[in-house]
TrEMBL record:
Residues annotated as binding Mg(2+): 67, 268
Composition skew (Basic and acidic residues), residue ranges: 13-30
GO molecular function: G protein-coupled receptor binding; G-protein beta/gamma-subunit complex binding; GTP binding; GTPase activity; metal ion binding
Lineage start: Eukaryota, Fungi, Dikarya, Basidiomycota, Agaricomycotina
Pfam families tied to this protein: G-alpha
SMART domains: G_alpha (SM00275)
Taxonomy, superkingdom: Eukaryota
Spans traversing the lipid bilayer: none
Species assigned in the record: Trametes coccinea (strain BRFM310) (Pycnoporus coccineus)
Name the UniProt record assigns to this protein: G-protein alpha subunit
Amino acid sequence: MSNNVWPPPPPKNESESEKAARLAAEKEAKKISDEIDRALEHERQELRKHRPQTKILLLGQAESGKSTMIKNFQLYFCPSSFQAETEAWRAVIHLNLARFVNYLLYVLSNTNVASGGKKGDPNKDYRMFQMRLSPLKQVELILTRCLSAESSPMASPTDDGPALRRETIPEVSVRGGMGWKAFIRGRRRGSQSRMMANPEEVNDARRILDACKEDIVALWKSPAIHALEKEGVDLHHHARYFVEHASRVADLKYSPTPDDILRARLRTVGVEEHRMVMETAAEKGEEWVLYDVGGQRSQRASWASYFEDVNAMIFLCPMSGFNQRLAEDRSVNRLYDSMELWDTVCRSRLLSKATFILLLNKADLLRAKLRAGIRFSDYVKNYDQDQPNTVEAVSAYLRKEMMEIHRVYSPRKRQLHVHITCAIDPTLMAAVLNSMRDVILVEMLHQTTLL
């Protein structure tokens, strides 16, 4: 019999006095063992309490992909909490779809396309779409009120007119920390609950979308939409994906997939703090805190207050912005603005000890633009016209430029980790997230002198 069995079997021919002594000894041993177990568990709990949180700061201009990167972190490292938020994201997706369709109808009403060249005299098909899809304005109004503060000027629906411009598809914004996901789930109580639409209204919005789905599909396939693109109206918007899948997304039984959620958009204004309890093996149970700070110019002055004591800084540069202008200042090229912002971040002494990770993001949109014949060299004068107009060549150029800025202006020598990314590609992002996780964990070990 194994010597590792506890308690050991009683010896043969054991007397009553010997048995009593043995049982007393076993009881004392068990007591000591339990005390040791409690002490070890207490020590583990204390270590967990005092273990430094992993703090990660996400920086970049507005619409650079920070919020999508947060969703990738959650999907990959905290899948159960990601799944629990599916219902909240369904409302966002439906709002993205309704807003985009309303935008298409607005643009059609202000071009010659719908009238076949006679502005102000819409043809029969256009009038039909305008009439049959008019309930989507109510859908947009309900979901906008549901997701953002009623007093917010950013929450105005598309039928406000002046908010719409042909080159701009309007977005709904939420303020960081307002807990819009809790509003959707109906779990937030208190005075702020008046900002949430009635749950039955949200269900009404779903029923309206379901009733309109066939007309949405027909509108998207109509010659008028193709004519808009020929006229130069840029329809390469994130919500295009939802219109292309309208028969599924607008269905009453629709439940968002992870891919759908990654493509959903809701702009954050201010700072959004995301606390994630990691579920993966390497760091299971640890809490990582990610700060998503607003990227608009008016909000950048407040960034510095979040620079101290962060373990890693992830900067997102949207490569596809090379032919776009800032919404805040139409005279400023988005790519140039992003590079100037990177210069400022690299110079910061408050971030001198942080791990620097640079994500050259939106490779998919960059590829689509270059394949459509838009030349990178026409907008970036330092890029030689003889160089290839390909994603590989352009991303290599940007990588070199950004690395040089980091090398020259960093207050101390440090390694820079660079990745070419498409934040809506889960397969690609899995490899990038694993690499970033490893880099951050190694740096944490260095900081705690364990490596």
